[in-house]
Hints:
Elements: H1 3-8, H2 16-26, H3 29-37, H4 39-54, E1 60-62, E2 68-71, E3 85-87, E4 91-93, E5 105-110
Parallel strand pairs: 2-5
Antiparallel strand pairs: 1-2, 3-4, 4-5
Amino acid sequence: MSKLxxxxxxxxxxxxxxxxxxxxQETDTELWEILEEKKxxxxxxxxxxxxxxxxxxxxxxxxxxxxxxxxxxxxxKLVLPEWFYYNQKNGITNKHNTxxxxxxxxxxxxxxxxxxxxx
Length: 119
């Protein structure tokens, strides 16, 4: 399990700060500075990739910043990772399900709203 997956897991006692420091020690400093600026996007990436993996027969597209997904099925039909749920305010989220306080919020739109030329 990757460090990012560990942070997202509901039983994680790893704080975002300690995980950031641990990963930072194992990573090239210049690369880490770039990743640190994008850490919220990285957490969204992990969650989106997990949703895609759990729904192999569903067309799922994302916006360039990975804050939204466009799905060929309604969100109620998507299989979500066990520690995630959906609500209208936060979209697909694990808010209130992590000990670390780090959470993901991904808004879901129908695939008909996906326009790669616009994004």
